[in-house]
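Question: Hello, beginner here. Any chance you could explain the protein record under this note? Any guidance would be welcome.
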Amino acid sequence: QVQLVESGGGLVQAGGSLRLSCAASGRTFSRYTMAWFRQAPGKEREFVGGISWSGGNTYYADSVKGRITISRDNAKNTVYLQMNSLKAEDTAVYYCAANSRIGVFTTPYDYDYWGQGTQVTVSS
C-alpha cells in the first residue's frame, strides 16, 4: 500500500515555473514507477511524464517535453515535477501516481495508487 500526497501547486504567471512534490508513504517506494498526470476541467486525465523506479529512465508527453523535468529521491520517498515556461494550457489539477510494475505507462488505468491532486493555475 502506498499513500501519495502532492504539494507545490499554486497560481503562476505564464512563463513562470513551479515545482511540484509528491511524498509517498511506505517502505517500498523505490520499487514503484512514478508518474504525473493532469486533468483540466471538462477534459480527461492525461499523462504528463513518468520516471522509473531507479530514476534512470524518464518519459514525457510531447505537449510538455522540453519544459518539464521529473526526478525522484528514493531516500526521501519523494518524486518531483519541475515545470518551466508555463502556459495557460498547463492549468489543471496535477496528480502523482504509482505503479508497481516495471515500465512507465501512459494511461491512468495502469496506475494503482493516486494522490489527491494539487491545483496549478497559469495566468496569461
User: Anything to note?
Assistant: The radius of gyration is 13 Å. The mean pLDDT is 95. The CA atoms of residues 23 and 115 lie 9 Å apart.
